[in-house]
Amino acid sequence: MDTEARSGVKKSRLNRHMRGIWLVLLPVMVLLMFMLGWGLGLFTEIEEEPYISETSNQIVVGVSQLGSESGWRTANTESIQRAISKENGFFLIYNNARQKQENQIKAIRNFISQRVDYIVLAPVVESGWETVLQEAKQAGIPVILMDRSVEVEDQSLYTALVGTDSVEEGRKAGRWLEEYLIKKRMSDRDINIVVLKGTEGASAQIGRTAGFSMIAGEHDNWHILEQQYGDFTIYKGKEVMKDLLKKYKDIDVVVSQNDDMTFGAIEAIRESGKTVGVNGDITIISFDAVHDALEMVAEGVINVDIECNPDQGEYVSEVIRLLESGQEVEKRYYVEEDVFTMENVTQEVLDGRTY
Ligand code: AHR
What we know:
Elements: H1 3-39, E1 59-65, H2 71-83, E2 90-96, H3 101-113, E3 118-121, H4 130-138, E4 143-147, E5 160-163, H5 166-183, E6 191-197, H6 203-216, E7 222-229, H7 234-247, E8 253-256, H8 259-271, E9 283-288, H9 291-298, E10 304-307, H10 313-324, E11 332-334, E12 339-340, H11 347-352
Parallel strand pairs: 1-2, 1-3, 3-4, 4-5, 5-11, 6-7, 6-8, 8-9, 9-10
Antiparallel strand pairs: 10-12
This protein binds alpha-L-arabinofuranose.
């Protein structure tokens, strides 16, 4: 055999030898890799567990709060956090949307992916909720609205609402003004009114505006000079009021749809050299009845405060308990609300007001 032929034979023997080694090694390596992977847990079936495993005995509730624009809102947040607590058997996932509907939609989608048991939504505005509420419904998660309502055609998109009757609040403001003018023997006079409205598109704003307008519409001598949005904040309330005072020299009544805007508006009125309240140039009608505003009612700075009750947490937890025990719930639960004037803001009322 020549050298070339000999080296060819050697090569083919070597190849056969190598193939033999691989045939043995490969299955061993695959087996080793599999065992290693098993040890690291790579082949364990990953079960999507709801949020946190220790919640197994608790009812998991995702709360989407619209923001923290006012003292009232802080009280409302505290109320829901108190009620949906560990001590009461709940696991709360809380989200503050900072006044943005898109943040609320994101939060709801998060709650759905975490497979919460219930969603509580305090919606910043009334419209634009269909899609995300449909997603919650498809996931089988009941949605409870808190404080404000939503505008949806399909009422089954939410289970219940715990909140306030904002149209009635607006009507109460109108009726109070009627009676006040009668008492003052001014019911035949021309009355110039400006309205500081809350957040554009919010049901609280829409309802209060509608309710007050209903009563105002019954009086030809009530003139609503202008209505401006004040976002339910002190800052905006002051800004809007300043603007209105520049435009109108003869404002008789300010209807301010929450206490925070009222605080700002009163500052603006005083800075303009005018006075407010019971013996003042401008009559002040406010909404909410938080502690600091009630003090101003007692002092005669604010004429009337239409209460909007933020203590809604207990009602929400009660609705959840009913649902948990398989009972039917009402579609709407309205919290109790009063009307405060100098006559009924007693020391007892002030001491009892925690917000
Ligand atoms: O929706 C309730 C309103 O929202 C309250 O009147 C106001 O203070 C809050 O910001």
